[in-house]
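User: I'm preparing a small set of examples for a lab meeting where we compare how different chains pack in three dimensions. I only have the primary sequence for this one, and I'd like the structure in token form so I can line it up with the others. Please keep the answer compact; I'll paste it straight into my notes.
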Amino acid sequence: MNNNKFYELNKYLHTLGEQGICLAFSGGIDSALLLVLCKNLNITAVTFQSPLQTEEEIDFTADFCKKYNVSQKIITLNPLEDDKIVLNPKDRCYYCKRLLFERIKDFAAGMKLTNIIDGTNFDDLNAYRPGLKALQELGILSPFALFKITKEEIRSYAKSLGLEIFNKPSTPCLATRFPYDTRLDLDSIERVKKSEKYLKGIGFTENRVRHHGNIARIEIRPENFTEFLQHSREINAKFKHLGFTYVTLDIEGLRSGSMDL
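Assistant: Understood. Below is the structure token output for the 261-residue chain.
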């Protein structure tokens, strides 16, 4: 971990704080670390509540903001009302980010907060992230990316600060569970939510349920395969009760962005 990066980052954040900071706070470790670093500055966190997030994540953000005494605004909206998003094209993330951050810009202007920041890190710049274009168009600042701070460095620094969530698994938007060009609908999204919550409840805390029509493709860590198979009968029964016809275990295991292949 390069502490010089974080020294420069902290100086930069204090400069932004002089004119006010509006943080897009999803509850992931990236934006959570930014919140902690800015907690004594003029900052307001904005979290979106929509069908594409779980209730547990929204509750987590509220508790986290209270813990660090940071003001939070929860904005409720439904991206599925936008045809460009609901059709789930390959650049869906671009349209979704535009929608969300346009709302943040309106809120920040009303609160006279000059600088809008998000948790995009340096690794994200090398991944398939069509939403980054929207951030650039709207003038959103990404401090971690600016100072070339990687995910591993973020987790390491968070650990050094004593943050219990330093190793918190990523929780990407639920739209990522569906193949591109598959129309998104509330029933299917709810099916995924309930499926993943069930798997977490029986011990598979890191999982993805990829929704391929009537097929559920489950991703978990390979070291959990044996335990998963021991529970296969009840998992199969639960998933069929939730509306899937076929239930599969992906033998490549849990990985980010498997729908981007």
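A couple of notes for your slides: The chain has two domains: 3-160, 185-260. Residues 3-160 form a domain with the Rossmann fold fold (CATH 3.40.50.620).

User: Perfect, thanks.
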